[in-house]
């Protein structure tokens, strides 16, 4: 079997899943356009702002993708390509797609509030408080880690910093053109995409050379602005335009697979255990993460995406379709590294990391396309730039989501959009505190040492989100198996992974990681107990 077979089967599976299982989910959730979405009924011009489906899909996909579906499958490929492939395809269809789609629909049925609000409605206020604290803390970790990653990238590749600055300026102009000057979307898109790709050579001509600390300070200022300005002026247009980067990368890479016809040179199955990764269960499911299911997606779906949804029926293409597209990116990532000789793959992964391994594999696919005349070196540069652009997207989206979590924690009752009852609900105050904690963690030098917990924390978010969604579906007297079974599986994965982390870190006297893992374990158990009455007794 070669890479063409992997791509074709995944494409067919995802198309059938979207057509049939996606429609099944829409029917179970009674998705229709009879009711106006909160983007219209609660429109405030800042967070609640209806967007056209292509624009919102661009924002949603760019936000949920990041580097996750690239890094996860590449690292997990050490187990062999077959278990990773099966999990990506099966997980995207029956777990990740369900998780993302239902999160968006549940949110718009609750004034586009977060998963935490849904937990409050069906599990209790204490459950909501616990979830919001956990989600906010996880997002602060994301902010710190991605600030370090992006700042390091811009320091070592100054042209990427210049290109990113140009992206921001272009996004603002695009937003003004669409929403204020009423330029037709297709005209603005053509002009925007052309300028987007021209910013790459412009970055090479005028690289901005700054040290890491300066870039970190600039990034903190940027994410503060990105979290507080109206979504239409920066977040929507930037993510929409940036999505064309990833679309181009995916399209070129997938087309290149058919011309390169790569053999799968790494083993189909390698081992049940990997050094520094763990046993196949649960490590495979935690490591692949965004390539099959990710708790971060529920925060995006119920945080920014649901507040911009124009019509209920748009939720299918954006929620379920967006996850299937991400699954396809994960398949491309796996195919790219599986096409290498096993020794070469291991050497690049160990010495350079998963992104360079992905970049080299995709560059070879692009090089194989006739008449494109793209050198492997230029293909690597383009791929690396695309990945760094999406790391930046995840950074500013995480900041806005953390702001939402913080504001919602201090809600004292039902409030209309734009009205606050506490100073901590002010978007500038909430963002300032969030960015301050992210900066403190960044400058502490401890960020990367607690990264091993993040994979489990992210998947725990997915399990908790599915728990809340199961409670919501059950409250409507509907059969909830389509969310209940994924929830049970994700809890089994997460609790097993956390249990192993607690033991492993205790043995090596890393008590910080052991305590954090223990707290996450206890949190999930408490929420499960609180949800028991709803799920079993319907109370």
Overall mean pLDDT score? 87
What is the name of the CATH architecture? Up-down Bundle
Under CATH at level 1, the class stands as Mainly Alpha
User: In total, how many domains does the architecture comprise?
Assistant: 1
Which regions have little confidence, pLDDT < 50, spanning 5+ residues? none
Helix content: over 70%
Taking all Cα atoms into account, the compactness measure Rg is: 22 Å
CATH superfamily: Amino acid/polyamine transporter I
Number of separate strands: 2
Largest sheet: 2 strands, antiparallel
Strand numbers in spatial order across the main sheet: 1-2
User: Which outline best applies?
Assistant: globular
What structural category do the secondary elements indicate? mainly alpha
What percentage of amino acids are in beta strands?
under 5%
Report, as a whole number of angstroms, the end-to-end distance.
Answer: 52 Å
The CATH topology name reads Amino acid/polyamine transporter I
Write down the oligomeric state.
single chain
- Number of helices, where a helix is a run of at least 4 consecutive DSSP H or I residues: 21
